[in-house]
Amino acid sequence: MGRDVIIACDFDSAEKTFAFLDKFTERKPFVKIGMELYYAEGPAIVRELKARGHKIFLDLKLHDIPNTVKKSMAVLSRLDVDMTNLHAAGTINMMKGAIEGLTRPDGTRPILIAVTQLTSTDQESMEKDLLINKPMAEVVMHYAENAKIAGLDGVVCSPLEAGKVHERCGKDFITVTPGVRFADGDIGDQKRVMTPAEARKIGSDYIVVGRPITAAEDPVAAYNRCVKEFIGE
Ligand code: C5P
Questions:
Q1: Structural domain of residue 145, as residue ranges?
Q2: What's the total number of domains in the chain?
Q3: pTM, whole model, 2 decimals?
Q4: For position 181, which CATH number holds?
Q5: Does 196 sit in the ligand 1 pocket, CB within 6 Å?
Q6: What does pLDDT average to in each consecutive run of 10 residues of the chain (233 residues)?
Q7: Cα(63) to centroid of ligand 1, in Å?
Q8: Residues known to be catalytic
Q9: Which 3-state string (H, E, C) describes the chain?
């Protein structure tokens, strides 16, 4: 399992996505396809990007009864994505169902990671809306441990949590971290950010970077800078 930079392709059409990715003529980046692009273009976008040589993190955050998640994961696995995810809040049983569904007849499967608590959920809304009366850090770690018990490969978390997750769940438990910004860049609406070099130091396995690359004047240069800082190539 290698460290890598994943570009969040937060576009609303295949056309815009291809126009952006056509700029990358050398290294084909690992890309994240989220709900917006997937719901706009369907599975065809995954097949097309695979055919163009990209690795794909399909970020659809499944959360339903175990049987439905199992069957849906089987479909995503046949699409040959490299990484996908779900909500740990769906319980250990749901996560176990997901692993079963994802596993191909030859025993291989995409990397499966869990969302613990969304970063948009704060302590107050977790207590008031969800009736969870524990400190956020404890909830996040508990969900990460549940994901590990269910056999998942890792979690999405803030780069600031990555070290702690590795401490609790082991070095090989993958941390995928958004909220990455260049030291001299705009932080936009992200609150807790880290540079690619800091994310590397703290032990993130994959960083998910959107606007610092997609909105850059020279996206290829911004991507290369990320790779250099994070992977050292
Ligand atoms: O543009 P930016 O670098 O902020 O994009 C980060 C990407 O990571 C977006 O696709 C966003 O939805 C996603 N993400 C995040 N924070 C989370 C989970 C996912 O920013 N906690």
A1: 4-230
A2: 1
A3: 0.95
A4: 3.20.20.70
A5: no
A6: 91 97 96 97 97 97 98 96 98 98 96 93 93 95 98 93 94 95 87 90 94 97 97 85
A7: 19
A8: 61
A9: CCCEEEEECCCCCHHHHHHHHCCCCCCCCEEEEEHHHHHHHCHHHHHHHHHCCCCEEEEEEECCCHHHHHHHHHHHHHCCCCEEEEEHHHHHHHHHHHHHHHCCCCCCCCEEEEECCCCCCCHHHHHHHHCCCCCHHHHHHHHHHHHHHHCCCEEECCHHHHHHHHHHHCCCCEEEECCECCCCCCCCCCCCCECHHHHHHHCCCEEEECHHHHCCCCHHHHHHHHHHHHCCC
